[in-house]
Specification:
Helices cover about 10% and strands about 30% of the residues. With about 90 residues, it is mainly beta.
Length: about 90
């Protein structure tokens, strides 16, 4: 999916983080997975969007479009809209 904010961008990009159910997860929309930010013990956990747990996490989030660049961001359903920062163009 081409997004206007991705054109001309080079180098690494920080993945967005959502806070759901008392845990923080990186959201990799390209690979369609959640990843634990700070695993309690052991390696990082990779959770596919298509897995049962991934579907549960997706139900706790909502995709919100950025007014400036049009990119969609997964955010917790309980997020305050004025606090949402676009991970692509950094606008609110």
């Amino acid at each position: 999916m081409d997004q206007p904010s991705q054109q001309g961008r080079t180098g690494p990009r920080r993945l967005p983080i959502v806070f759901v159910g008392g845990n923080e997860y990186f959201v990799d929309q390209r690979l369609r997975q959640f990843r634990t930010v700070t695993p309690p013990v052991g390696p990082i956990e990779f959770i596919s969007f298509e897995s049962e747990r991934g579907r549960q996490l997706l139900q706790e989030t909502v995709a919100i479009p950025c007014d400036l660049c049009g990119a969609y961001q997964l955010q917790p359903r309980r997020a305050i809209l004025s606090d949402i920062l676009c991970f692509d163009c950094a606008s609110r």
